[in-house]
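Ligand: 4'-deoxy-4'-aminopyridoxal-5'-phosphate. Inputs:
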Amino acid sequence: MQRVHNFSAGPATLPLEVLQQARDELTDWNGSGMSVMEMSHRGRHFMAIAARAEQDLRDLLAIPPNYKVLFLQGGAHTQFAMIPLNLLRGRASADYLDTGDWSLKAIGEARRLGGVRVVASSAANRYTTIPPQAGWETDAQAAYFHYTPNETIRGVEFHQVPVLANAGIPLVADMSSNILSRPVDVSRFGLIYAGAQKNIGPAGLTLVIVREDLIGQARAGTPTMLDYATFADSDSMYNTPPTYTWYMAGLVFQWLKQQGGLAVMAGRNQRKSARLYAAIDDSDGFYRCPVAAACRSWMNVTFTLADASLEPVFLQQAEAAGLSGLKGHRLVGGMRASLYNAMPEAGVDALIDFMADFRHRHG
Ligand code: PMP
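Predicted complex:
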């Protein structure tokens, strides 16, 4: 059996070493005589797995002690609701920056629960840029400021963390598609959240990293399962957590440490994406990336063909060449190559070679 290069946006490719370790441990974890899937979440084996995963994540991101790490379910979509429920804290509204489809989803859900002010939007530029900060109409009284550091669908990424005029306003970030892809200063944020299925592990787990003073102020009537305090007070074990995904995430964290940590991953991710963008830009217009150069994503590289009628042919031949998952999101079409941590440089090289060959044959 041959593994393909899997460019899917999520669920996404995992490090082969991690899959092999999971396979080796599948029926008997560490002499316990049982699979991780079969363990009580409150037993000593799983407690050890859970604690190690959290510690490794804390090490990787240098998470300060006054932040809780929560291992939740419900995906990033559930966070779109949990954030306003917990963080509005009686204030009139929160600020949201609109840089694409995921920002809009977060805005739509927050609107159901309280006041939302959209401080700026790049909709008029078809989400190919990030609105210049000089034009953001921020509110000095905002409950928090929400943004999407990497817009997975169109491939737009912030390469700097915004500095707000009012440093007291908690910065909230949907890092679903770029968490762990580079070092980040967690102390700049009030809350970071991410679905696991891109850069963390299999689907089914949602990570929340939240500053302790923001916990415990959920609005009256918030369901128990949507209150951060529920999970902060129970080591994320109020109810049965997604144990196997938590274990898999832990293996990925160990793998990241073995690779040398997030600075090493950042170097690799930047190199991988730069090579692919160069191949697109140097194709005499055969391939085209619509995203402005300054905010092109390291994680999700989007491109189109000048002759759109060739796109199905491109996708079909790529698939036949072992390059899978390159179809763009259904909202925007075109192509998208997701280059998360687990995508090796050789996978990107194989894609670039295929693109050059395809252009040769159809250009
Ligand atoms: N935010 C971003 C940036 C995403 O990429 C995604 C998933 N593609 C989501 C939110 C939604 O995640 P989930 O399916 O885990 O709810």
